[in-house]
Amino acid sequence: MAYYNKKVYSIYGRIWQNLVIWFFLIPIYYIFFRLKVFGRENIPQNRPFVVMPNHLSNNDPPLVCAALNINIAYMAKKELFDVPFWGALIKTLAAFSIDREKVEKTTIKAAKEILKMNWPVGIFLEGTRSKLPGMLGKPNLGPAFIANLGSVEILPVGIVGSNKLFGPVTVRIGKPFIPEKDLEKAKWQCAEKLSELTGLKLPDRE
C-alpha cells in the first residue's frame, strides 16, 4: 500500500513546509546555487494543479519548492520512504509514495485527494533523473494522467544546471496548460513544453 498521510495536508503542514522553504531552501539555492527564476507570474493562484519539472539531480524537488515558493506534495518513489532520516523528513514535508513497478490504487486516490485539498502535486515527467547530457529522459504518463484525473492544469517547470555542483541554476516556469485526453499524445505534449523551457532535446519516440 502506498504511503499517504492525510493529516500532513493541514494548515500546520503548510506552515511547516513554508518554514523549511523560507528559512532553509531559499537561502541555500539563491546563495550557493545562484538560482535564477523566470516566469513566476505563470503560477496558478488559489487552485490546485500539477507541477511538472524535468529531472536532472537529487536537488530538484527542494529546488523547485524554492523557485516557486509554494507548497508542493511530491509523488516520490517508495524506496525513499525507507531511508533513515530522509524518509521521515519527506513524510513530514507532504510527500506520498509510488511503486514505479506497479502503480497502486492508493497512490492514485492520494493524488486525487491532495488536489481536492488545494495542494499542487509535483510529478517529474521523466520519473527519474535524465542520464543523457543535453536530452530529456523518456516521458511518462504520470503528470497528464493525474491532471486529467483531477481536472486540473499542468504547470511545466524547466530546470537547467541543477546537476552541476553549485550551479548556476536557472528555472523557467511555463504557462499552465490542459493536457490531451489521449495519454500517449499528452506525454509528448508535456515533453515538448519542457524541451522549449530548457533547450534539452526530445528523446526518440518509440
Descriptive report:
The chain starts with 10 loop residues before the first helix and ends in an 8-residue tail after the last helix. The chain has helices at residues 11-31, 60-68, 86-92, 105-116, 142-150, 183-198; strands at 36-38, 49-53, 73-77, 96-98, 121-122, 153-160, 170-173. By secondary structure, it is of the alpha/beta class. The longest helix has 21 residues, at 11-31.
Which secondary structure elements does this structure contain, and how are they paired or packed?
Blueprint lengths: L10 H21 L4 E3 L10 E5 L6 H9 L4 E5 L8 H7 L3 E3 L6 H12 L4 E2 L19 H9 L2 E8 L9 E4 L9 H16 L8
Parallel strand pairs: 1-7, 2-5, 2-6, 3-4, 3-5
Antiparallel strand pairs: 6-7
Helix pairs in contact: 1-2, 5-6
**CATH top level?**
Alpha Beta
Low-pLDDT parts are none
Number of strands: 7
- Tell me roughly what share of residues is in helical segments: 25-40%
CATH superfamily: Glycerol-3-phosphate (1)-acyltransferase
The tally of helices reads 6
Give the overall form.
globular
Element string (H = helix, E = strand):
HEEHEHEHEHEEH
What's the alpha carbon Rg, rounded to whole Å?
A: 16 Å
Mean pLDDT: 93
CATH topology: Glycerol-3-phosphate (1)-acyltransferase
Per CATH, the architecture is 3-Layer(aba) Sandwich
The biggest beta sheet, please? 7 strands, mixed
Span between termini: 32 Å
- Structural class assignment: alpha/beta
Q: How are strands sequenced across the largest beta sheet?
A: 1-7-6-2-5-3-4
